[in-house]
Write a structure and sequence with these properties.
With 324 residues, the protein is an alpha+beta fold. It is 66% helix and 11% strand. Strands 1-2-3-5-4 form a five-stranded mixed sheet, covered by helices on one side.
């Protein structure tokens, strides 16, 4: 009976409910003993009519409410939709009109997420290509220039007078630091360890580099995961890189936990620091955080950024993993 009622279009369900209310009112007026209306109306008659109207209104709401219930589910799903997160779909329930609306909304979400994922894939592919180009130019041009400068400095070391020795040593050290910075930036732009040794080694090298450069103690708990695609591994690496960069720049932290683990369903990356935490405005406006969310959306992963227990910030990326 209930299934048959849900199959009735919304218009007719509301019409039938209103007709039922009118029918009940007509029967009550026709059969109720001693019901009369005076002109002008008396106070007692006004009380009776008001009570009848309230009762009929409640009866009408009781009949019509189930017909509009599924519409609230659709409205809640619309309010909760996040373009940078995989969103749950609306249950296709209710009458044919409401079911059609829910089904159409779900189809719209499928199209929007597919189009946004493809747009993000194209944009990130271009970004990675540009990163590699800049890294090659830094290594091949700037790096070679600094190397040539080092050789020239060494050739001058035996020719200059002792009075200029300190200046030459300072120039040598400045050039060496510049070459080191160029190599470090090139490695950050193009993670060769990820391509050659895999995600576990790349994250370990990333943690070592950031720990030394930022003066942070990084506690690494990295499991070896072999079920991710190249695209998924790159997203995990970039999210870890951006999270560590945010810690070094903004968190004022003294230690960081970097964890990579796998369970039956997901591969989970977790970056937790003991710093001052992020404000709500920073979460909403930070470009780096938006970039992490876009990368997560690209591979259908779930990204959460929240306050960590005991202070600081915790970044968690959960990537759906194929069975080993």
């Amino acid at each position: 009976m209930r299934d048959r009622l849900q199959a009735v279009p919304l218009l007719w369900r509301v019409t039938v409910a209103n007709a039922a209310v009118l029918g009940v009112a007509t029967v009550a007026l026709a059969l109720a003993p001693g019901v009369t209306i005076s002109i002008p109306i008396t106070f007692n008659e006004l009380v009776v009519l008001s009570g009848g109207m309230v009762a009929l209104f409640g009866f009408s709401v009781l009949l019509v409410r189930p017909a509009f219930g599924p519409l609230h589910s659709v409205a809640e799903a619309m309010r909760a939709w996040d373009p940078l997160q995989p969103s749950p779909r609306v249950p296709v329930v209710g009458g044919p009109d409401v079911a059609t609306l829910a089904r159409t909304f779900n189809e719209m979400l499928d199209r929007l997420e597919a189009e946004r994922r493809e747009s993000a894939r194209q944009a990130l592919r271009v970004q990675e290509g540009e990163r590699q180009r800049v890294a090659r130019e830094l290594h091949d041009e700037v790096g070679q220039t600094l190397t040539a400068m080092m050789l020239q400095i060494e050739s001058l070391a035996a020719k200059i007078p002792d009075t200029l020795r300190d200046e030459l040593d300072e120039l040598r050290e400045t050039t060496r630091l510049g070459a080191t910075d160029v190599r470090r930036i090139a490695v950050r732009l193009r993670p060769e360890a990820l391509e050659e040794l895999g995600l576990h080694s790349a994250l370990s090298a990333l943690a070592t580099s950031f720990g030394e450069h930022a003066g942070l103690r990084i506690d690494r708990r990295l499991e070896r995961v072999a079920t991710l695609s190249d695209e998924q591994e790159l997203v995990v690496y970039r999210v870890a890189q951006e999270a560590l960069t945010n810690v070094a720049r903004h968190a004022r932290a003294s230690s960081v936990e970097l964890m990579l683990s796998r369970d039956e369903r997901d591969v989970t990356l977790r970056v937790r620091d003991d710093g001052r935490g992020l404000t709500r405005d920073a979460l909403a406006s930070a470009t780096g955080i938006r970039g992490m969310r876009e990368r997560a959306m690209l591979i259908g992963a779930q990204l959460s950024i929240a306050a960590a227990d005991g202070g600081g910030t915790e970044v968690v990326l959960r990537v759906p993993a194929a069975a080993p």
